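Hey, I'm writing a tutorial for new members on how sequence and structure tokens pair up, and I'd like a real worked example in the thread rather than a made-up one. If someone can provide the structure for the chain below, I'll link this post from the tutorial.
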Amino acid sequence: MEYDYKVTGQIIGCIRVQRGMSQEALSGLAGVARSYLAMIENGSKNTNVETLWRIAAALDMRMSELMRMVEDEIARRTIRRNPETF
């Protein structure tokens, strides 16, 4: 399984919306620019571990929870594309 920062951004965006947060609110809590958060969510920007840590904390979750969700989604997409490999 390969890491996919686009999936990471999609997951962050979905969690943010589910929690009723705006990009402005989440970016403020995480200490990143709203435009940078938007680029992470739309998959045009990869980010580092520290920023992911701060985003996860701002979403009131552990980074390990966020990464588990990312891993699960990547695995789900891999199975859908290549069912014969599983």
